[in-house]
Predict the structure.
Amino acid sequence: MASVVPMARAAHPRDHLVQAYTDEAFLARVVADYIGTALGRGDGAFVIATPEHSRTFTAQLEGNGLDVAAALAAGQLLVLDAERALARFMTEGRPDRAAFLGIVAAALDQVRASGHPRITLYGEMVDLLWQERLEAALELEALWNEVLTDERLSLLCAYRIDELGRHADGVLRRVTHCHSRLMPAEDPERFADAVDRAYAEVFGIAGDVATLRDLMISRLAPGPALPAAHAALFALDDMPPLLANDIRVRARRHYRRPRAAAPSETQIPGG
């Protein structure tokens, strides 16, 4: 599958972005693009990740031409272990607000002391929580939103979630509503085409698939910014479960199909 790195680099002050992923290499490219862009323009960066991911991100950043060792030595970049950080503020399965805010404030002060008042953050503590303690992960996201009242900050969170998985959509929708923007899938154009094909196959309409999709999207309550294809999937929550799941299964099959085997000339109406 072709890889298209979403423009996480286009984060705005106080942005709270979320990236769903299943492929580790894709995540590394997204995070390196996001953090590397911040460092390149002279901002600070604060990463909270597992040691394995931190090593992968470092390799990707260095491959992109960034001197990670120099950024760490200068205090421009700070990296913390996500599991150890969680252990410092989780109490009886829930985040302790005061402890969390204290840890984050100390880390931000450390980066700012190196002369970098604007800081780009990446975190995956929520990814360590959500599968067993979704409510705790959502509470942690709410605490991050308190941190992001500072306009000098922006944050990207990552969740290992299959966006077209049978059981993931309700979770991803709840997670997304804690954020300002859901980032596109690995191959956004192909993802959107897969959703449109699934809509057309299930509803069997001869008219405009995009019109139907947009009508369903219009019924969603106002919320974070979403790619149109993801909004169309979220809109399925108001449909009978069997029908909604059929669309997701079909979309997943189209999206995962090897590109060489995909029908290249077939046009979906309105797609």
